[in-house]
Design brief:
- The chain is built from 1 helix and 3 strands.
- It is an alpha+beta fold.
- The chain has one domain (about 5-65).
- Strands 1-2-3 form a 3-stranded antiparallel sheet, with helices on one face.
- The model has no long low-confidence stretch (mean pLDDT about 90).
Length: about 70
């Protein structure tokens, strides 16, 4: 994790697999509520889908942290 609005995504592979990653490493940024590729500044289906998963994960993690205070 680089920051809350910027993430380095790497090593996406099938569960319990020693195969090489399915996708190349990518840096995603959240700008104006949209997840985009840092290199191109463009949104894609992959950046949107992965970004939404990141947002859900961070939201859950923050809620759990608040509950444990």
């Amino acid at each position: 994790m680089i920051g809350y609005d910027c993430c380095l995504v790497r090593d996406i592979r099938r569960v319990h697999s020693n195969e090489s990653p399915l996708l190349p490493e990518m840096k995603l940024e959240k700008k104006n509520g949209r997840w985009i590729h840092s290199a191109s500044g463009k949104e894609s289906n992959i950046s949107r889908t992965i970004g939404e998963a990141i947002s859900r994960h961070l939201s859950r993690a923050e809620r759990r942290a608040d509950e444990n205070k």
